[in-house]
């Protein structure tokens, strides 16, 4: 009897491992497609689309992006993370820090604010920094104020934005 219970336990474990492996592979294939779509849009200079993704209204298809790759692998218990997860995180940061202009950020915020706010706070903060670097104090303050207004729930970000406003007003 003990031998049958042991064999049953081993079989159950193998079934669980096989099921998890198949699920992992399915997620990997899906995110690999999203990553390829993101890369194609990045190469075309469509940085917001590469970052956030969206619906192609002409075809009715969803266009994947770095955000979907990251979100698919961030869930609790989802491991191991494949290389494209880390690459997508690097590309998302690169887009926000180096590729998006204030005009791009405005368009992205307008398009995505009511749908999905991920990355919008970081992009808006970067917009304010760009204006600050350019010496455009009024626009920098306006951008920091927008962060405080729209993302007030993110206390640390709102406080950092307020500190920047205070510094700009003092100088």
Question: In words, what does this structure look like?
Answer:
- This protein is mainly alpha-helical and about 170 residues long.
- The protein is about 75% helix and about 5% strand.
- The protein contains eight helices and two strands.
- It has helices at about 1-45, 45-50, 65-75, 85-100, 100-110, 120-135, 135-150, 155-170, and strands spanning about 55, 60-65.
- It has a two-stranded antiparallel ribbon.
- The longest helix has about 40 residues, at about 1-45.
- The chain is elongated, with a radius of gyration of 22 Å.
- The model has no long low-confidence stretch (mean pLDDT about 95).
Say how many strands there are: 2
Rg, Å, rounded: 22 Å
Number of continuous helical runs: 8
Form type: elongated
Strand order of the largest sheet: 1-2
**Strand fraction:** under 5%
One letter per element, helices H and strands E, the order comes to: HHEEHHHHHH
Average pLDDT reading: 94
As residue ranges, the low-confidence spans are none
Q: How far is the first residue's CA from the last residue's CA?
A: 82 Å
Assign a percent range to the helix content. over 70%
């Amino acid at each position: 009897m003990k031998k049958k219970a042991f064999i049953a336990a081993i079989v159950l474990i193998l079934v669980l491992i096989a099921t998890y492996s198949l699920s992992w592979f399915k997620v990997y294939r899906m995110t690999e497609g999203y990553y390829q779509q993101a890369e194609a849009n990045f190469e075309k200079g469509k940085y917001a689309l590469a970052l956030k993704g969206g619906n192609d209204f002409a075809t009715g298809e969803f266009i994947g992006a770095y955000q979907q790759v990251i979100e698919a692998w961030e869930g609790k218990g989802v491991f191991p993370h494949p290389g494209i997860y880390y690459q997508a995180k690097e590309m998302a940061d690169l887009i926000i820090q180096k590729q998006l202009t204030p005009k791009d950020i405005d368009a992205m915020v307008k398009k995505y604010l009511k749908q999905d706010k991920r990355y919008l706070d970081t992009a808006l903060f970067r917009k304010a920094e760009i204006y600050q670097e350019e010496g455009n104090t009024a626009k920098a303050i306006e951008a920091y104020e927008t962060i405080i207004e729209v993302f007030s729930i993110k206390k640390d970000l709102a406080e950092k934005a307020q500190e920047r406003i205070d510094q700009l007003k003092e100088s």
